[in-house]
Fold these 2 entries.
Entry 1:
Amino acid sequence: MTEWRARRTYQAVAVVECRGGYGIALDGKPITTPEGRPLVLPSRPLAQALAAEWQAQGQHVDPLAMPLTRLAGSAIDLVGPHRAAVVERTAAYAETDLLCYRALGPEALAEHQEAEWQPLVDWVAQHLEAPLRVTAGIVAIEQPALSLATLRRAVEASDDWHLTALAAATAACGSLILGLALAEGEIDAEATWALSELDESYQIELWGEDPEARRRREVQRADIAAAARFLALLAS
């Protein structure tokens, strides 16, 4: 954003009403997106949460410490101007959805996947009328064209703000099923992360966790949590 400098140069952070919604002002000056567009938010709770991120910065402004601000910027700069591409990219996860590919073994892992993943595969089939095929192993299967088209329409039905969060969660999980379930309140952020990491967590129980894997999992967990909070603030 235009005010994003290495060193914090502002004191006061405020939510301001503006045309079309709410903005954030630093020392009375409205901030803009990285592309220079007005940062106009659709809900006051979301604006207040962004303001809190800016207020929490220390001597230096760290964009990585402001996940909601980054999502808002993405909604305006990336999703809005390139909506069709984002819809296609997000919907495409259904073709190779994580939850549709089960382990050949060990038996305990395969049973765990069936118990934890299948209810959400069934939910998509019943709630969205988009049944998907499930297989064991890594050989790709072709999903029903009608189901893929239905899921694409479900993605496309989201406005730019909700699509931003859905796209972020889906990419973090590698699963459109999980992304949609989170967006529709079927599961919460922690369950979304746990289900997306089911295989990894199983291996960690057996062999332990290395630092690199821990960092990756923490980033993924934070990304999903941010997307979930973004959705909740939009609905407030």
Note: Strands lie at 13-18, 21-26, 29-30, 101-102, 135-136.
Entry 2:
Amino acid sequence: MERPSCAEHADEYCSYFCFSCVSDCICPECIIHGVHKDHEVKTVKKAYPIIKEKIDEINNGLETKVKNV
């Protein structure tokens, strides 16, 4: 699987996720010098289980609401 390039810095690979913006994945350059400076970021590998858990919680809540309707 090919790693995606950063939308802002085409020569950099996306390897981080910004929890402050909940946006597309970003590159190190975005964190150091870009708009994500001083934001809460984690590597994609570390962010994945956190994001998955949040999605599961939302999904469970939606399933409960659908059952109630």
Note: The chain is about 45% helix and 10% strand.
